Amino acid sequence: MDSFDGVIEFVAVAECHGFAAAAKQLGCSTSHVSRQISRLEQRLGSALLARTTRLVSLTQSGAVYYQQCKELVVGLQQANEQISQQQFQLNGTLRVSGAGPFAEQFVAPALMAFAQDHPELTIDMDFNSRIVNFVEDNFDFAIRYGKLADSGLIARKLASRSMMAVASPGYLQRHGIPTHPKQLTIHSCLISNNDHWQFEHEGVSQSIKISGRWRSNNAHAVVQACQQGLGIAYMPKSSFKTLVEHGLLTPVLEPYWSKGASSWIVYQNRRFLPLRARLAIDYLIAYFSEWRE
Question: Ranges for the HTH lysR-type domain (predicted)?
């Protein structure tokens, strides 16, 4: 039987579309990946990859070979992980990208509890709203909120997020209390993700274009601006819960609040996930299965 050397490297290059990205995914050097694939092609007597200075693509033979090999590689990885899971604690570094109060206040504590169960595991959590490149930035998964772009990534729903509109008592004394979403056009609104707010009433949805004196992609900054009386804010309920309970912010337009969007776990094709990432994702899904905003 021919050696299997180079098959894993070949599948990684085919799916990462490059030698450097595959090397990073596999945790080895680019030269090692190139050398292993060259030897594989020599043994097979056929070119599997077409290489240019800017692009790596599959040849016709390579495409056929990839279809046969990819499930073999997945099966081998899963078999290895099952044995490893039985014998060892999780280790290495789990890198997570998160953004917003939900990730900070709820996801981070959940991952802390996960880390307590795996004392040899290191967790590196980056709070940044930018779009991440999972290969180049080496993130295992990301926590994101709202409608997701069709990026080819895998997304699993983590929690539903109901909305709430609030303002400071001082702002409402000066400018009045809106009783219908259309009245927001004459109010100062605090803009976070977009300037179109979605409301629902008796099964009817409506979108209101708003404007205001403060715009920020940081939810904490929006909440602080709301406390300072700069306008009306409209975000998931958990953003305001404590401040509303203490009377520092006042809910408005309650009959029209949207059921909101969702928070998601987003990651690359599952075959690339190390065991620590798979178990962390499954842990978070179970952890938030009965969570309510």
Answer: 10-59
Q: Do domains 92-160+262-287 and 163-256 have the same CATH topology?
A: yes
| pLDDT tens, the chain, 293 aa long | 456 788 889 988 988 888 888 888 888 999 999 999 999 999 888 999 988 767 788 999 989 988 888 878 777 776 666 655 544 567 888 999 987 788 888 999 999 999 998 988 999 999 876 666 766 677 889 998 877 666 678 888 998 888 999 999 999 999 999 999 999 999 999 998 789 999 998 888 999 999 999 999 888 899 999 999 999 999 999 889 899 999 999 999 999 999 877 888 988 866 567 888 889 999 999 999 888 77
Q: Which CATH number fits domain 7-87: 2.40.50.140, 1.10.1270.20, 3.40.50.620, 1.10.10.10?
A: 1.10.10.10
Nearest Cα residue to 95 out of 130, 148, 134: 134
- Measuring CA to CA, how many Å separate 98 from each of 125, 263, 266? 7, 10, 10
Architecture of domain 92-160+262-287: 3-Layer(aba) Sandwich (3.40)
Candidates 223, 225, 260; CA nearest to 244 is: 223
Residue type, 21: A
Alpha helices (runs of H) in 89-232, residue ranges in sequence order: 101-102, 108-117, 169-175, 219-227
- Residues 114 and 62: their CA atoms lie apart, in Å, by 41
56-58 vs 49-51, strand pairing mode: antiparallel
Instruction: Determine the Cα–Cα distance for residues 142 and 264; give it in Å rounded to an integer.
Output: 8
Please report, for residues 63, 91, 102, 273, the alpha-carbon distance to residue 110 in angstroms, rounded to integers and kept in the order given.
Answer: 41, 18, 11, 20
